[in-house]
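step 3/5: co-fold with adenosine-5'-diphosphate
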Amino acid sequence: TDERPRVLECRDVERRFGGLVAVTGVNMHIHQGEIFGLVGPNGSGKTTMTNAITGFFPPQKGQILLNGENITGMAPHKVARRGVARTFQNLALFNGMTVLDNILLGRHVHMKPSVFRTALYPWLARPEEIAHREVVEEVIDFMQLENVRDEPVDVIPLGLKKRVELARALVAEPSFLVLDEPMAGMNQEEKEYMARFILDAREERGVTVMLIEHHMDIITGICDRMMVLSYGEVIDTGIPKDVIADPRVIKAYLGG
Ligand code: ADP
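step 4/5: write tokens
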């Protein structure tokens, strides 16, 4: 058995939308330092689980524990302040703003409103704003975005946009990072780059990662363990090698 602390634990989670049961009976846990894959065909409940965990759509049944503490029903900004950062399936960047300013927005969880305002206007900088800037600069360097830092975010290629999103999540200095399809729409080279950044974030920044993905091939290479959802229920959890060989998983993916 794995003795590492559990960063996340979900117990018997259920979320409905009207009459539709989006997920039910979901039990899962993620150990500190793991890269954990949440996989399943479209509509299987991956985003619903993400929204339940991050507080956007709390479950109607069951419990969510973060580092052993019950956070079920907690507001998203409070979950964020406890060290959870996420990216979104569809890019949530602000077009017209630069790469730098988009990344700076990720710092807001640590800022008082007044500090946040002046952080966008560096000529008003005070020492605490300078500290925020230092984190941002370090992450820009880590994510290799220095060449595009002053570009409007809408003009850069998709692969770089996804990197900006990851950078924005990292400047919050999270302990738990939830990535919703970080490689969607990327070409092979961009995917490999992104996989490397995720692995390095775990290695160098100590983050625990939950990675949502509907393509199996991408995820099996970088996950320690993975869980497969189908029609809102868990059909398997384990190491990638075993999960991809599970007949129930193969059937779910073939649409049988
Ligand atoms: P996935 O992320 O695996 O594609 P989702 O969690 O988005 O799956 O969807 C699971 C089910 O819940 C789908 O039937 C979807 O239509 C429904 N659903 C998800 N979010 C909402 C919502 N906000 N309102 C209504 N139905 C939703």
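step 5/5: annotate
Residues 188-205 form the longest helix (18 residues).
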